[in-house]
Amino acid sequence: QVQLVESGGGLVQAGGSLRLSCAASGRTTSGRTFSGYAMGWFRQAPGKEREFVAAISWSSGSTSQADPVKGRFAISRDNAKNTVYLQMNSLKPEDTAVYYCAARPSPITRVAPGLYDYWGQGTQVTVSS
């Protein structure tokens, strides 16, 4: 079983920055590492469906981002710490949401939430205007 714990959310003014962290632990399909996994960040605002933000293939480091965050958000990982990060710059009020970290036992990133098997509890990001 894989466990994901997010941190780093909070309240920030428009134009500010935050860095979210997702610490991964537990038994993976390979038994040891997350190298065969893809990690994703999703967000859900009140009254809206959960949407894709960014994803990274743990082994190759290849990334993808949703159009609304391209050029502002960046996803990265630290293999030694089993941690994935989401650096969020130039934040806008419309970025306000609960942000979730997710993992899937495949190195191929996907944008559909239903293709991720493991989820964290979420961290609130609020951007004031």
Features:
129 residues, mainly beta, four-stranded antiparallel sheet
Could you describe the 3D structure shown?
With 129 residues, the chain is an all-beta fold. Helices cover 0% and strands 50% of the residues. It has no helices and eleven strands. Strands 2, 4, 5, 6, 9, 10 and 11 form a seven-stranded mixed β-sheet that branches. Strand 4 and strand 5 (51-57) form a beta hairpin. It is globular and about 45 Å long. The model has no long low-confidence stretch (mean pLDDT 94).
Give the secondary structure arrangement, pairings included.
Blueprint: E1 2-7, E2 10-13, E3 18-26, E4 38-44, E5 51-57, E6 63-65, E7 73-78, E8 83-88, E9 97-104, E10 118-119, E11 123-128
Parallel strand pairs: 2-11
Antiparallel strand pairs: 1-3, 3-8, 4-5, 4-9, 5-6, 7-8, 9-10, 9-11
Q: What is this entry, summarized?
A:
This protein is an all-beta fold and 129 residues long. It is 0% helix and 50% strand.
Rg, Cα atoms, Å:
14 Å
- Output mean pLDDT: 94
> What general outline do the C-alpha atoms trace?
globular
What is the structural class? Answer: mainly beta
Name the helicity range.
under 10%
The percentage of residues in β strands lies in: over 45%
The oligomeric status of these chains comes to single chain
What is the rounded distance between the termini?
40 Å
> How would you sum up the major sheet?
7 strands, mixed
Number of continuous helical runs:
0
Number of strands: 11
| Low-confidence parts | none
User: What are the secondary-structure elements, in order, as H or E?
Assistant: EEEEEEEEEEE
